[in-house]
Description:
Helix content is 20%, strand content 36%. It has 152 residues and is of the alpha+beta class.
Amino acid sequence: MIKITTIAYKSSILAADTQLTIDDHIKILYHKHDFLKDGSVIAAAGDADVSEEFKNYLNKETKKCPSKKRMEKYSAIRIFEDGRVVFYESGPDPYSLDHSFHACGIGHEFARAAMALGLSAKDAVIFASEMDIYTNSIIDTYNSRTKEYIKG
């Protein structure tokens, strides 16, 4: 199984680590931000194959959405051009944020706690990387206000 992990959003910043783990022992660099055809940006955690299929579905390149069963361990945060932020958790239905920050992926609990204590989205993912072996400290960020994407 291919795993992609910790994503965090706070104060217009979408941060993601760059580690992709294959079969729990092979780690490679992988950029998780995807720029969709409608102008939105999505960063996903979970199975990389499901992430790619769901991105193709959102881009209307296929009519087939990954099955609910395949999306059980998938999560993502998406920012639309108008600044609206939604997240996906275990399925294709978007949920609105009811907090000023959100995190997903295997290191989400560490990242959420860090943001609740005042850390930025980027620093929260770095903190998660210190606690979670599936998260690294090379962080990509996207600023939804300036539309700037910075690779770690």
